[in-house]
């Protein structure tokens, strides 16, 4: 997710983060180790979660700082806070970039020990709604870093510094910098039921206005897999024959005789619904926004770190959802689907897993595409085989619903970005990495290198 122009920002300033503590400050943040009673105390089965928002202030220069910064550092000094598991920084103007770095350290609730300093990905603007869309121009959207998963914590310290390589004319830090500490809460229900019968698909109209859901569409969708009815924890996997039946039911009138005779589509994989990962549906906007079709899939990583267990993935997703909507001001979580390192697939933005839901994942290319994000960071860490296979299964099915060949090319019209001017028709791989549509390091080099394998596997699953 880091913009390519910022990739030269390294660890040369790491020494500046070894900040000495006064005895008074050290005493203020020290607490006893958890007692045996506390360690065994049962936790609440369901808690709503919260976000603590702290304004960043100018930090004093310390002996550890090799030279006086051109622009003073901002941050939050060590302090105890409410429990949280995910952290990010937001600011007022979404069109302003943070040219510099953000580093954070946190104290684990379970052990009382402080983490090492961790970098938070600062270039997050390319994961956004397209320019001139209602979501982008709502007046609620803020600039932001990527979110970072740090695990259950109860104290924090953060420092933000401009890129000193800019010299005496360094770009000031954005205005209104705030530290967002997100507690994703806990859900009372298990992630998934042990068994669940397949849900019969019901055809829904696709010619509704692109920015609303008609009453007829809502009625048809209430009983169908496209909208995952209330209470459903997962959409089950289907066999190839069942998937073809689903295709004919959903899009049969649009298929040619040749497509009906030999439909190229992979079997539908199991998908954990929003209910399954515990989405609070009161946060997002109620209306759904659709594009006309899905011609391409953009693969991302969330840049939120790899230090989560697969059992924690729903919590991480709830944290990202809360950050996207309540901290960044988006209408819903940005990605259409999320995949964890164990290969579990999760429904992202609401509106129906089989529908062409308009996301906010690839600035300039959200129309006629879908965004799939691997939960983690993959600049230097290889994605798991299970996650790569899950992306292949998901794209073989979803692209197959719209007749797209995973090994093929397609044209998308740019909505505006830093690689392609607005209105330009761009030839892209049907399965592309985020960096193919925007100058960014996302989805990370190690994941990007796996896309060739993903395309081949997805095409084979479609029977090509």
From TrEMBL:
Asked whether the UniProt record includes Signal among its keywords, one would answer yes
Q: Which residues form the N-acetylmuramoyl-L-alanine amidase domain?
A: 283-444
Query: Could you tell me which residue ranges the Peptidoglycan recognition protein family domain spans?
Result: 269-417
Chain intervals for the UniProt region annotation (Disordered): 30-76
Which GO molecular function, any one, fits this protein according to its record? N-acetylmuramoyl-L-alanine amidase activity
* CDD domains according to UniProt: PGRP
Q: Which UniProt keywords apply?
A: Signal
Q: Where is the composition biased (Low complexity)?
A: 30-41, 51-72
Q: Which residues form the signal peptide?
A: 1-27
Q: Name one GO biological process term.
A: peptidoglycan catabolic process
UniProt family annotation: Belongs to the N-acetylmuramoyl-L-alanine amidase 2 family.
What is the protein name for this chain?
A: Peptidoglycan recognition protein
